[in-house]
């Protein structure tokens, strides 16, 4: 089953996709928009990618504060996810994204991507961290069932 990870931001959505076996996540692209409220083309592009990669589930990053509370960005992410599920008919799961962008920035820096170029890729890499975390959780859940 292929899963698509999404890092929803004010003007971008980072997109990542799993391999067909659901083991690894790869950054795919960053969908840019002119303003936060202009989402029609963003939804259309994500649906196009979902069709191309035969995606069966979306995982949308849920931005939480370090104290586990949700703020305005979390509410906007939930709304985005609900609209995406309604439009596409594809199951959508919310997943804690704390520190995913920080981790993505570290990886880009460590791999030699200059700071000026990181903005082009950081959201897709963050989406891959969100997706990988979710897939690792699924794997751990399956292993727990087999241990019983």
Largest beta sheet: what is the strand line-up?
3-2-1-4-5
Uncertain segments: none
CATH topology: Nucleotidyltransferase, domain 5
Residue share in β-strands: 15-25%
Provide the number of structural domains.
1
Return the structural class. alpha/beta
How far the N terminus sits from the C terminus, by CA atoms, comes to 25 Å
> What is the C-alpha radius of gyration, as a whole number of Å?
15 Å
Average pLDDT level? 86
CATH architecture: 2-Layer Sandwich
Query: What is the CATH class?
Result: Alpha Beta
Give a short account of the largest sheet: 5 strands, mixed
The general outline is: globular
Total strand count, please? 5
CATH superfamily annotation:
YqgF/RNase H-like domain
Descriptors:
4 helices, alpha/beta, five-stranded mixed sheet, single chain, 5 strands, Nucleotidyltransferase, domain 5, 148 residues, globular
Describe this structure in words.
The protein has one domain: YqgF/RNase H-like domain (Nucleotidyltransferase, domain 5), CATH 3.30.420.140. It has a 5-stranded mixed sheet, sandwiched between helices. The model has no long low-confidence stretch (mean pLDDT 86). The chain is globular, with a radius of gyration of 15 Å. With 148 residues, it is of the alpha/beta class.
